[in-house]
Model the fold of this input.
Amino acid sequence: MSGGGMTRARFVLGVFLAFILMAPLVLPEFHVTLLNYIGLYSIVALGLVLLTGVGGLTSFGQAAFVGLGAYTTAYLATAYSLSPWITLLAGLALTFAVSLFLGFISLRLSGHYLPLGTIAWGISLYYLFGNMEFLGGYTGISSLPAINLFGLVLDSGRKFHYLIWTLVLLALLSINNLLDSRSGRAIRALKGGGLMAESFGVNTARMKIVIFIYAALLASLSGWLYAHLLRFVNPTPFSINAGIEYLFMAVVGGAASVWGAVVGAGILTILKQWLQDLLPKLLGQSGNFEMIVFGVLLVLLLQRARDGIMPLVVRHFPAPDKPLPAATEALTRRARPAVGETLLEVKAARKAFGGLVAVNDLSFAMNSGEILGLIGPNGAGKSTVFNLVTGVLPATGGEVHFRGERIDALSARAIVLRGVARTFQQVHLLPTMSVLENVAIGAHLRGAKGVVSAALHLEAWRRRSCLRRRRANSSASDSRLACTNRRAAWR
Amino acid sequence: MNSEIALFLIQDGLTNGAIYALLALALVLVFAVTRVIFIPQGEFVTYGALTLASLQLGKLPGTAWLLLGAGLTVAVMELVQALRLGATQRIPAIVLKYIVIPAALLWLAWWIAPQKPALTLQILLALALVVPLGPMVYRLAYQPLANASVLVLLIISVAVHFVMTGLGLVFFGAEGSRTPPFSDAQWKLGVLNISGQSLWVIGASLGLIVALFLFFERTIYGKALRATAINRVGARLVGVSPAMAGKLSFTLAALIGVLSGILVAPITTIYYDSGFLVGLKGFVGAIMGGLVSYPIAAAGALLVGMLEAYSSFWASAYKEVIVFTLIIPVLVWRSLTTHHIEEDEE
Done:
């Protein structure tokens, strides 16, 4: 049965690829144009699936990055007659710099500041495009050159179609690879497990910046394509409303699968086209009335099916529980301290929450080879002591030493690097990840593979989603076991 | 720039800043009580201004129909819920609140609008038509998701903003409107001309702030809202209904929004989509106060008004760019001053 799901998924994928391949040859111009737009929007929405759907960071400002890519190429290609391939690199470089700066500022803030910040700079950049004289003001820049691909001039929508969809598929592939890697597990832990991931050495702030930049670069790429497809740019398609629509696409598609981006972009683009024909006739005046329907649709979707449409689709294609990865060498054990060496020394540790002193000058020492228990009634401050030792909470006073080194001023990440692992009272398992993946987060610091190699890694593509089945929604005792193993993976 | 222009810009900045301050207060209120970042706040400004403009032209404002439509939808939802719970005794109140009163207001507006009544009456009617939309919006969009994360609620807010802007276009059209000022008085103070309208705006804003202060300090409902803002679960345990708190805070936010719209309508031309930017400027102020502090939010909003006045003098094309880029240093400042531990919020 589950094997059937896999074959069915391959069949649907095959039909889809055949459709994309054949479309420009058989479909009328209008439909090819529509497909091109779906492709362009899919690339932006893909970035948002990674950023918002998987990473839990909401951005309304992606349209500004699309504009950045589009305007860079439009300006450089017309004012300096540079090749579009050079301007692509320039656009990506500029977007990288801008997104690094914006991400650095806003990503360190708690959840809702980021979306508000993205709204603000989304508006800001839109007015900037519209007011810069060298960018043509609100009229924009026209007569951009066509892209020349190895001597083939892409001067029609039909020819452009293949370039767009090749890039969509490459983007899909790269994100799929990325999510099924060491970095990908860390990214997937950002939403709902940031604290836990940080306690296992994941640099969550860096991971957030990485996916923010990745999403911005995809948006910029889409902008480059857009500019050379239309061979004209003006500020309107990069306004905050467009940014909101991109987010709608990602939310409608849902984060259950990277294909959600394509599905969301497809549904919204076709729906918009249809409503733009229908509503003005119905209401007897012209205007962007489709936004009413989009808004209502989104509210209903979030109220009824918060994870979007994809989970409903994916359900019909259950992938089999793949065999576990072939046995690899066991991770080497860390050098063990000599028995009797003082491992952990807590000296007059103190934690006060305002007037409430949760830990009152606690001192103890623990030697290698010992098992030390900390007992006390509810509210005695046992968990707080754990949080002080592992750097989750800063101590109000006192010192913590680990193997002679003072660690109470270090970050949680720096402490775990020195060999202090922990479990949590609540097990902090991530329900969208498999048991194995949950355990693998514990070994985050035992690997070194970065984001770029993960996105390009072909082996990972073959093993695609092998760890993605058997979700971690097991019984309480199983959850506890998985949690303990995760700690043990960091030995 | 001479001192005359500088003073004029200060007056302009204070007038706009007072409006932004009101909106910032409403945003802080709604966020503290319901955790909703109320992007559609600006649409209430638009609706208020354009409803009044329609009434002044002797036309039936589209918001009257919207009120009935929203009322009917809420009524259906509430009736289904009442029947499911077997609480048939609630039915008369639901019918009265969500069907009879909106229908009566529609009829009243239809009857009275062509007679062009006195300005006070028009303002009261505009308030009666638009303010009830606040709690209705809460009931329709937010209440079913009251326990969702801030981010989900924010996306809902943006969706509601989309819907309300679109409906604004349907009801009011793409043309802007400006209403005649409340007072044509002008005072000369040294070199400065003080317009009666800007005194109205500043005075009404101050009055509203005092009224809000008294409401929060002296009334049981105000205290219930404060309790909910401080501890939602605790407030619920002592009998403050979250749905009541949500509807009440949205009613207040709508009231503040509509009043701001009525105050600002004689100063600037309002289009169906003007509210978004006006609301967001209140936001920049609110964010300065971390969405929790009323005084800092109000001060921040005044600063935004000043900044806007001066930047429209120095670089008018870049006015919006400057105001919205201001948020970046504010974010930096907040990120340096907030030491928070990542909340594991789904």
